[in-house]
Amino acid sequence: MTVPLLSASALGFSTAAGEPILQDISLDISVGDRLAIIGPNGAGKTTLLRLLSGMALPGAGSVSLLGRPIAAMPPSERARIVAVVGQSDQPDRRIEVRDYVELGRIPHAGRLSRSAHAALVSEALERTGLVALANREMGSLSGGERQRAQIARALAQEPRILFLDEPTNHLDPRARGTLLELVAELDLTVIAVLHDLHLVPRFATQVAVLQHGGLVAYGPAPEALSRATVRSVFGIDLLRLPHPHEDREITVFDIPLTTDIGANHP
Description:
Layout: E1 6-14, E2 20-29, E3 34-38, H1 45-53, E4 60-65, E5 68-69, H2 75-79, E6 82-85, H3 97-102, H4 114-127, H5 143-156, E7 161-165, H6 173-184, E8 189-193, H7 200-203, E9 206-211, E10 214-220, H8 221-224, H9 227-234, E11 237-242, E12 249-254
Parallel strand pairs: 3-8, 3-9, 6-7, 7-8
Antiparallel strand pairs: 1-2, 1-4, 4-5, 9-10, 11-12
Helix pairs in contact: 4-5, 5-6
Domain ABC transporter: 6-237
Family: Belongs to the ABC transporter superfamily.
Keywords: ATP-binding, Nucleotide-binding, Translocase, Transport
């Protein structure tokens, strides 16, 4: 039997006051999966991402990385497998892009020559389209460029899994799609909290839908994003329609005019 790259079993988490945030969450992530974690505000999406990445410890259940308890891994070892781009990351505005990306090599300090480290930083800049901006200060970048720099820093870690917490926040619609296209082409396992449902079908291979701290749907994107689930959790309609100009299907999310139409249909 193949061991999942990342596995969560019966995860639970509560606030210091004992208020439950997540209950009984179980997931198996395979190599190459792109998992989108979605749900309404307050559903526990960011908390789940923090537990899966080892940034927080669960109050119940466990997370295993490569078959080992992630909580038992030294932080330096975990950082060579897992990279996290958080929604509240605030790089020093004065640091140059290349120097910022080079921070991703810290977990590998002393393991390679200086020239090998530099080559990996250059590769991360190239893969994210930032070579021309390498000497710019982070504070001079646009929102989309800054997000690409954060992903480049994560790539410099040479992770097996890339975690993204709402990476498209504050980006215009075109930049959102471009960023996720870039991530999808990285040949990495990706776990991303996404707020914009329109981005999910073309990006995710797997979807986890959270509501009130529980997992209400989990599986391949077309199955987890059923019309019934989307209506129940988000109060909107999902329609799959043929593209008018291309040979592919498009997914449309629409606010219904009534509260009952299609409620009982998959």
